[in-house]
From TrEMBL:
Name this polypeptide is given: WD repeat domain 62
SMART domains: WD40
Domain Anaphase-promoting complex subunit 4-like WD40: 73-133
Source superkingdom: Eukaryota
InterPro entries registered for this protein in UniProt: Apc4-like_WD40_dom, Quinoprotein_ADH-like_sf, WD40/YVTN_repeat-like_dom_sf, WD40_rpt, WDR62
Cross-referenced Gene3D superfamilies: YVTN repeat-like/Quinoprotein amine dehydrogenase
Classification lineage: Eukaryota, Metazoa, Chordata, Craniata, Vertebrata
SUPFAM superfamilies linked: Quinoprotein alcohol dehydrogenase-like
């Protein structure tokens, strides 16, 4: 099985790399590069490992194909008009994703349609981490509060 590394950052780039064996070990070789117009804060891969979801400063979630680096979808990751998306997490079934925004909101979104299923407020500080439980019934969030 091939090893792939995908990274994103404040430089507004997503790099797709594949591991290649050489006489002196494994080396990661860039296969695709995507330059966006917005800062990229977080990413998560779906259960099939075909798609990577990226949380963007412009409050959108962009979904890319992991094999060719092409954008498949772009949808609103926060229902508000303020702030930036900071975190994104795809549930273990690959059906939903959760986002956290710097306006302290959390959204649960249908991974395929982009429809917002739920929006929540409750933390007094930004959400710094989140994870769905394995049975996909609960979303655990962590905040500075």
């Amino acid at each position: 099985r091939d090893i792939q590394m995908i990274s994103c950052g404040a430089d507004k780039s997503i790099y797709f790399r594949s591991a290649q064996r050489a006489s002196d070990g494994l080396h990661f070789v860039r296969t695709h590069h995507v330059a966006e117009k917005t800062t990229l804060y977080d990413m998560d891969i779906d259960i099939t490992q075909k798609y990577v979801a990226v949380a963007c400063q412009d409050r959108n979630v962009r979904v890319y194909n992991t094999m060719n680096g092409k954008q498949k979808k772009c949808y609103k990751g926060s229902q508000g008009d303020e702030g930036s998306l900071l975190k994104v997490h795809v549930d273990p079934s690959g059906t939903f994703l959760a986002t956290s925004c710097s306006d302290k909101s959390i959204s649960v979104i249908d991974f395929y349609s982009g429809e917002c299923i739920a929006k929540m407020f409750g933390h007094s500080e930004i959400v710094t981490g989140m994870k769905f439980t394995y049975d996909c019934r609960h979303l655990i969030t962590v905040s500075g509060d």
